[in-house]
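Translate sequence into structure tokens.
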Amino acid sequence: MFMTCFMSQFQYTREENTRFNDGRHIIYVNCEYLKNHPEPENELDKLIHDMQCEDVNKIYSKEIKETAANLRIIDDALFRLMGEKPGVCEEILRTLLDMPYLQVVKVSVQSVVQSFQREITLDALCMTQDGRYCNVEVQKGNSNDDIRRTRFHAAALTAKYTPKGADFKNVPDVTIVYISEYDVLKNNQTVTHVTRCMKNDESYVPVKDGEDIIFANTCVNDGSDKSELLQLMLNKEAFYNDKFPQISNAISYFKETEGGQSEMCKIVEDYAKEYAKNSIQEAIEAKKLADEAKKLADEAKKLAEEEKQKAEEEKQKAEEEKRKAEEAESRAGKAIERNYRLIVNILSGRTYEEAADMLGISIEDVKEAEAAIKAIDK
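Result follows.
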């Protein structure tokens, strides 16, 4: 039901009439109905629809509108909007998993999972009626290690949704559906099912551990329903395909109605703002790192200058010590020379024994003094 209008003395609904008196006038708008029924059924519905969808008339820039108009289902921005509808993810999973009766009971887009010291954001996390967690990821660029990425996603989901203290038999089943514009495995297959296997002689036998990874791509078209679905994800225009009514209805809403176009413009604008915010934050972080690097460089330069100054001071100190030592050595040499000359003067006209006896030194000392003076006076 789209709306319920409460007025004085009575309550009006499309399905029933009841009466009570509370003296109030209240209009309740069912937002979920608006999403699932974008076209108003009458003038009253149109009035409230316009109240709810006030962003429809918001004026977006030409660039925003062009970007929004060119969005495809495989693009993250549009897939975020499409993925909110359980029927869309249900059709994708039913087709790619070959499970025509699979039911999706809950979908969470852009779910953030913190696990193993790393945060990941999941495009569309679905829970099926049998309790299995299915993560549908869309990827355009091949700058990631996709194989390890899917392995980590599966591990993170397993750890996140395993109840504390649960027996291993109660570890939840997890499926990763990885849709890309390129052939991740380079095996020229549209869809490849990857599961853990055991080696048995020369063959490999699957081991049912509850983890499955499905790689699907849009670049290999094998003519199957799976390829048909994947090719639809590349369309920039609205379409209708009888095999995929939920996806067709959703893309028609976003491409052909004012409300859907407005939602696409808004999410493109949000992406642009987020990109600008991240760019500014990265610039701030880069400047912070540059400032820290400059600070470290300045500190290193200051330390080097201090070390240089210290080395200069040590050098000057060593030179001063050397000068003092040389002066002391010079003074000592002159003193020794004076002593030697005194000995030689006393020796003059005397024998070595007489001079030695007079000075109280040995004859060898007298002879050494005489030889030293002779060497000096040459």
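Note: Residues 258-347 form the longest helix (90 residues).
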